[in-house]
Write a structure and sequence with these properties.
This protein is about 25% helix and about 35% strand. It is built from 2 helices and 5 strands; from the N terminus they run E-E-H-E-H-E-E. The chain has helices spanning about 30-45, 60-65; strands spanning about 1-5, 15-20, 50-55, 70-80, 85-95. Strand 4 (about 70-80) and strand 5 (about 85-95) form a beta hairpin.
């Protein structure tokens, strides 16, 4: 699991969370939630105020993100291919790590 900070001047406050993956044998034990919480915490300590990510639409990962307080931003059709080479939609999520409006 990694997060990557934006390098453009107008986006240095945000980062993309990439590749949070849990081995199938370890799923259902809270591993994803633990990894996600650590990524969020590390990003916040580094001054990131907004994280975003994408995941395959309809995957179990969507449930993990929603339960962890992430907000769905939309879906992009035909964004990625699955292992069989079929085009699949992707759902975008974001999470504000601190309130920037008050």
């Amino acid at each position: 699991m990694s997060w990557y900070r934006e390098t453009k001047a107008n986006g240095r406050h945000r980062a993309e969370l990439r590749k949070l993956m849990v081995h199938p044998a370890a799923r259902g034990r809270g591993t994803a939630r633990t990894l996600l919480a650590e990524a969020e915490s590390a990003a916040a300590r580094a001054g990131v105020v907004l994280l975003f990510l994408d995941t395959e639409t309809g995957s179990g990962a969507e449930r993990v993100y929603r339960r962890a307080g992430w907000t769905e931003a939309g879906t992009i059709p035909d964004y990625a291919t699955d292992p069989a080479g079929r085009l699949r939609p992707t759902t975008l999520f974001y999470k504000q790590l601190r309130d920037t409006h008050g």
